[in-house]
Amino acid sequence: MRVLLWHGWLLEGAGSNIFTARVAEELAAAGHDVVLLCQERHPDRYPWIDAWGTVTAEGPGELTWKGSSSGPGRCVLLRPEIGTLLPVFVLDEYEGFEVKRFVDLSDAELERYLARNADALRAAVASHRSEVVITGHAIPGGEIGRRALGAGGYVTKIHGSDIEYAVRLQERYARLARDGLTAASAVTGSSADVLARCVELVPGIEDRVRVVSPGVDTDGFRPTPRREALLEVAERLERDPETARGRSDSVDADVARALASRDGEALDELATAYDQTVPDPGAAERLRRLARYEGDVVGYFGKLIPQKGVDLLLAGAALAERRPSALVVGFGLHREWLTALTIALRDGDDAALRWLADAGGTTTEAIGAAGAPEDVLFTGRLDHRYAPDALAAMDVLVVPSILEEAFGMVAAEGAAAGALPLVARHSGLAEVAAALEGAVGHPGLFSFEPGEHAVRAIAAGIGRLLALTPAERADLRAGVRGFVVGEWSWARTAERLLDAARA
């Protein structure tokens, strides 16, 4: 079958990026002829992408072919030529683009972006003779699909950020979502929760919504002994030349000075002084140090932005009775605020903690904490080459997001890798937690109540999981991994998307 996927961004980092990449890979592996429209600048890094090029209203340009096909099907990546402006839901850095939030776009900028993508999609479909077209996000994918293909010509998948950071905030996006989703043949979402939130804002689509859960690469995400996993990641990082562009250790001293002078602007500027998209040059050494550590490790994996609640994890680890080390894997413009929080926790500096809470949106619950985590190690961004082993090194993976999430993909990946999850009990995260808790017969074990006292709830949850005996932990790891392998595979996700398109 000829399948086309439209996605507005990259293939790593955010959950929707990973979703799109894995679905495209599975479809090609299943023998389908896949065309993937997105803005990924390094398609050569993905072994399952067979060729790549650009596409405009006039059609695809000349393709660069990797060689023989990687599987029974094929995947061709086409990058729509949209200019230098890339709209996003949450500010971050994107190589080669000026980044602007959707809610900050002028009407002219929004129209130009939609028109160029719709023209590219229309031309790609005509060239490919696509039988199924799947567009990502209520905004902008639904509207781009409608403009390019008309009513009934596409399926749109919801991811959550589109609802919370565009549709809910501005009437122009609510209007565009109504137009795009009511014209879609089906609307899929990662959980019943995200679809319910979508229907609340776009009534009238109840008859076409379908839950299509994300999947997990359970061959890649698998349990590995901590020392082995960390040394493997460290060895590969030492061979990665891109780390030279990342955050140097010297930035820590700059953060300490900015914290001492209460200079929030300096913290923000420091986060733009290095390449956020690569691992830290010092990550390999830090992971080797952690490989020698005999105590407990709690971790976070994802974007370093305020909405993800990483500060709650750091404060919770500081308050936990069995004070573990914390491994923070990810990138984002909030990195230096989190580093400053780590310094303030380490120094027991309540005045600094209070200033960070007032100026940077970090939690106030850490004020008066008795100390800090045993150690806090940041790595910078670790992509698909490194992520599975990083997760396998964690005893507990905390997903502390305060954002309404469509699913909890990282919790599922962590469970597959042997990290016991501790997940905020709200939105799609609650559905993931309940499924994993149900699989092992322990309601409430893998989740905590969000809200005003989230830090103490996280500390209690960490303590609850770390107090288990080694045998109990092993049984739980086996139980949740077995559930993920059986229920949340990318092959099943890809097939369910096709089923939604065929219905």
Describe this protein with a few key phrases.
about 500 residues; 10-stranded mixed β-sheet; Rossmann fold; alpha/beta; 2 domains
Secondary-structure blueprint of this entry?
Layout (H helix, E strand, L loop, with lengths): L1 E5 L8 H15 L3 E5 L13 E6 L2 E2 L3 E2 L8 E7 L4 E4 L9 E4 L5 H22 L3 E5 H13 L5 E4 L2 H7 L3 H13 L2 E4 L2 H10 L7 E3 L14 H13 L12 H10 L3 H7 L12 H9 L5 E5 L8 H10 L5 E5 L5 H13 L2 H11 L15 E3 L8 H6 L3 E4 L9 H9 L2 E5 L2 H14 L6 E2 L5 H13 L3 H18 L2 H13 L1
Parallel strand pairs: 1-2, 1-9, 2-6, 3-6, 7-8, 9-10, 10-11, 11-12, 13-14, 13-16, 14-15, 16-17, 17-18
Antiparallel strand pairs: 3-4, 3-5
Helix pairs in contact: 1-19, 2-3, 3-4, 3-5, 7-10, 8-9, 8-12, 11-12, 11-17, 12-13, 15-18, 16-18
CATH topology of the largest domain: Rossmann fold
- The dominant shape is globular
Our count of domains comes out at: 2
Q: Compute the CA-based radius of gyration.
A: 22 Å
Helix content estimate: 40-55%
Number of strands: 18
Which stretches of 5+ consecutive residues score pLDDT under 50?
none
What is the CATH architecture annotation of the largest domain? Answer: 3-Layer(aba) Sandwich
What is the strand content?
A: 5-15%
The end-to-end distance, rounded to whole angstroms, is 15 Å
Task: Please tell me the overall pLDDT.
Answer: 94
